[in-house]
Predict the structure of DNA-binding response regulator.
Amino acid sequence: MKVLVIEDDPSVRTLVKAVLEKNEYNVDIAETAQSGEEHAVGNSYDIIILDLGLPDGDGFDLAKNVRDKEITTPILVLSAEQETDVKIKCLRAGVDDYLTKPFNTEELLARIEAISRRSGEVNGDRTLECGELKVDMLEREFWVNDTKVDLTNNEYNLLVYLLKRKNNIVTQEEIAENVWDIHFDTQTNYINVYISYLRKKIRNHSEDEYIDTVRKKGFIIRCDD
């Protein structure tokens, strides 16, 4: 697995690089936002590990710029910021996971493995299907009625989670913790927003309503396979 580490703190950078290489990852290093973006756009990586506070730019903007260029490489943020609103801002910028500093190196490795599983890079079924819906987890592609539909990383990860639990109700708390690894805040509606995004994209190519809201319980994706 090839990893890009974008981190300006030499001690953190050295630690992350050493831990990853010890576990047989190939690691590239970038110390600035500009260099990191050039690496991310110009090369192919399995995961990007990103610091938010870079000397020449903001990690939020870097993540958004990478996503705007249709780079779908999973992004794991390492940051000392612990506030939920910062994590939500990262998720909305296209980040896949968030780990606060200081961190345990075993947790870092576990999160990388979890992201890989969600990305379809680890052994398992390559495709998920539900009626007219199909996800190719190796290529990270979504199809409705044989039409390819573009999803953001957050939309994709949410859809995969629902499909893996098809015909079962999942709560907002489960989605928040398993898809984005944050504790659900009842004052925010970001999960409803992403559910709405998915519904709209499915409706554009299908007459069937796949994702239902179950009052006071959560959501379910109904499949008659």
Summary: Helices lie at 10-22, 33-42, 59-68, 84-92, 105-118, 153-164, 172-179, 190-203.
